[in-house]
Amino acid sequence: MPDLVLGQFAGVDMPDWVDALLRIMFIVALMTVNAFALIYLERKILARFQARVGPTRTGPIGTLQSIADALKLVTKEDVRPSTADRWAFELAPYIAFVPVFLIFVPMPFTETWFIRDLNLGLLYVFGVLGLNIVGVIMAGWGSDNKYALLGGVRAAAQAISYEIPMLLIVVSVVMVAAGRLATDGDVSAAVSINGIVADQTTTPYILLQPLGFVIFLIGALAELHRPPFDMPIAESEVVGGYFVEYSGMRWGMFFLAEYTALFLIVLLASSIFLGGWNWPFGADVGLGLQIVLTLVKTSVMIVLVISSRALFPRLRIDQLMSFSWKVLLPFAIVQVLANGIIMAYGGPDWVVGLVSFALLLALFGLVFALTRTRKGGDTTRTIQTTPARPRVITSPEVTAVEAGGGD
Amino acid sequence: MGDGVTATQVVFWILAVVMLVSALGVVTAGNIVYAALFFIAALAGVAGIYLILAVEFIALVQLLIYGSAVVILILFALMLTRARERPQALFGRTRPLGIAAAAGLLAALIGGIVATQWVTPGSAADFQPIALQQIGDVIFTVWIVPFIIVGVLLSIALDGAIMLASPDEEE
Amino acid sequence: MPALEHVLVVNAVLFAIGAMGVLTRRNAVLILLSVELMLNAVSLNMVAFAVYGHIDFGNITGIVFAFFIIVIAAAEVALALGIVVRTFRNRATANVDEVNLLKW
User: What are the chain A neighbours of B57 within 8 Å (beta carbons)?
Assistant: First the structure.
């Protein structure tokens, strides 16, 4: 399978460095257009949910609004607080942005269009995405602002908590892929994203791993700080979170990173669960239709993610963490175990799908039961321990009074 | 491998210098958060060298476990243990002694490396990247018992960490 | 491919830098960081031996070792940081010289 995306596309022989440069330019262009489009789309969709019409003034039906926003950002003064840590503050936007940029590499747009088909593409995506958090924490710490620090620490805690169920789900997907590929004798494509997509010509993996799809989507929302998991950047709690002190293009970098990550994670989800460039259930379509299929699937997922901002109530930060560690993580582990047991005993694919679907129903049931008991204002049930206080040595009587008071 | 310096070797030396300078930053930085940030750069350098040695799997595991999880934990610990009342001493009184001991260790190690007659590895044509499948085969057959023990150890250690770090029940 | 000796020398320097950190730093978290540097040097060494050795000896045990070292380092960091945070709560210091309650 040739991997020379642009060289092959143009049908021209070119030196390696021209090829590399073209690929980078392709990524940059795609990233910019994507951010503009997503910002416009998000504003329009949210406006519809709130019975407004959204931007209408700039350009036909407001389509140039994002460009106007970008111009405003670029021309804005770049301010650094005088007490901020210089190096951490100024480097943070780039360190947050570069990993997201790197995730483009293994993403398949069609059967032959990708920057590079990495053998360990799935692992690569998560390994690189994790570095993004370092930039976020640097921004939070370097701003010398309590809200920024809180936002940064929240973002880091949330990211490492939701990364674990997501990774376990990726493991279960790889298991399914390896099991299916093993019939051909070559399992080495099971960790490559394009290999996984290529295996979904007849069956999209969402049918085999419905629980995986749901957990992956929830984890993606949390990783991207999208509502209802937007605690790190919640205006009402931490006045914008880790980038509260940023302005101008540095702030724009965080924004660009966020929207690019949204596009990429959603593209990844549509690749490994919805079959990427495949027409569902068979039928080999041409190159042109493959890219349309990829984009349609991705767009549907993007609309889903943006809608969730308007559709779901937000959580509290402790509920957010509990949900990952006490609900998603056990379900993800059970999913991996179930896949392993079924496949070890040679169970067919439909059993894998059925068990996953049963687990998904159990997850929904559990969430439903948990949220029901919280009705009637009994919010204390969810807080098992009192929030951690700075420890001071108190006399027993004072402690007793405090404990009686409760929070 | 040839006689001339290949591009891979140049990249290796660049990575090595970045890694070692960052490592020096970790042990000499005056600001503890800077030390942690230098640590990330050093880890990235190590991951890069893994890539040079063509073991992508270990490089990615390094990024995934060290690069995100361990670093975040360390930054959390730094922020939780920052003494606000008084600046903490970053170095002890025995600093010169420590530097001397480390220099001695370095001399001994390099002396050992130089003095040893290494078996020359096969030619570059023989060189084959080690596939994930090979590693998996070995881990799940030869090393399966250590693998299980490591898993158990990991869960026990994490339980212990939670026990240690969780606040006392005030009764 | 760089020569095996070059990789080993780089790792030796990294190990010595880590050792220097352990010997000179007094903050518990920074000592832990230095220990991690030393562990990294060791696992890099293991991988180097495996990569160069498997051509002649067909043995990739070093890579498995590096994998185990990374996993155990994660466990060790979690546990050690738990201890550090705990000590800080009780003694308001992360300096290892001041944690001398058991010292005669």
Answer: 120, 123
